[in-house]
Design brief:
Helix content: under 10%
Order of helices and strands: HHEEEEEEEEHEEEEEE
Number of helices: 3
Amino acid sequence: MMLDRRSLLASLAATPLLRERLKKRLFADDFREGLGQWVIEAEKPATVTARDGVLDIVTPAGLTAWFRRELTGPIAITYQAMAVSEGAPHDRVSDLNAFWMAREVGGGSPLDHPRTGAFADYDTLETYYVGQGGNGNTSTRFRRYVGRPGERPLLPRHDHASPDEMLTPNRWTSVRLIADGSRIEYWSDRRRLFDLDDSSPYTRGWFGLRTTQSHLRIRDFAIFRLAR
């Protein structure tokens, strides 16, 4: 069932200030009408389906699913995600990742410049990125990409290895991404894992789900305008 605004507000009970600022739902996908709102870039043949309220991604290598709409801040991007571990070949609990406010250098759309799905291909974007449970569920990292090949800047305080910030198999996790002017945040359930006060923020761009060698399920995807 798609998470409506009332349910989402209830899920944010631990963050009343943000709850008060959710002004309007801009976009949503209940994953009952196929993949029309998404563009898939896959390094190797993958299985991606949207039905019965769930986006199901099974991939043997790198994959990015781009939401087609351009986003302009201030916004909150919300969804629930599960790393599946049921014994299938690609049920590797790893890499619940995301790009947000992503754009080409100069402001163009990533959708106009298709990539192979290999991770290094995305170095040339200006974007925020989080990899939760990366490297076989051993690292959780936040990066601000600067659009140059081979550069993925990583501050020491944004390189986490705590077990309680990794992925729990077969459990739904609530994810929230914030792009609020200079304030950039990543929340997992009701815990803020990363924040950045960006002096030169990316205020518009595209959102992409990202993973590799994994089986993910996504539901209740929505994007909200934040009141100023």
